[in-house]
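Folded chain entry
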Amino acid sequence: MDDAMTAMVREIRNRFATDEIEVKRADLSKVLVSRFKIFELIDFLREQYDYKTLNAITCADWIEEEHFAITYILTTTDRKHSFMIQSMILRENAHIDSLTPVFKQAEIMERDLHEMYGIDFPGNNNLVELSLENWVHTPPLRREFDTLEFVNKHLTFREGRDDNIDVKVEMKRLRALKKEAKALAAQKAKEEKAKEEKVKTEKEDQNGE
């Protein structure tokens, strides 16, 4: 870590009361900060250290801990360094302020997270459906959403298509084929070993005569 990065990390640690700073690569760092400090930190990086580009807003569902890990990825103007700024928000009634007043491109990113995780972004007035038309079910990227159950309950295969298959039956068939191939490979290896042992024994017998 060069002197400039060291100074920045030290300032973030002191100013935002966090020791959760990780240098993942020479061009990528990550910091975990309180949700009540996250936008102040984003402004700090943007104004003081030239992190002018918002590349992405991502989310991970930590269902066991009852919260979402939401991450904002910022990059410097010269594209030489990126910062992942992460915070935790509760899964129940999940919400965090919109970043659209600072980054206009945050609008569509927040729409996607709203649709896929059910997170609300107060300040974003365009949280309309993005790709799921008339969706009334559990947001599909929440971990309690059962994809297979949903497919079996709500979707049907089109008649007349050659590739219509029962997913469970097909998975069972593929597992059986894999098991059979593994057994055949083991049997072949056993036979090859027996053959080698036989050849070895015959050579030893010949040498002993």
User: Anything to note?
Assistant: The chain has a mean pLDDT of 89.
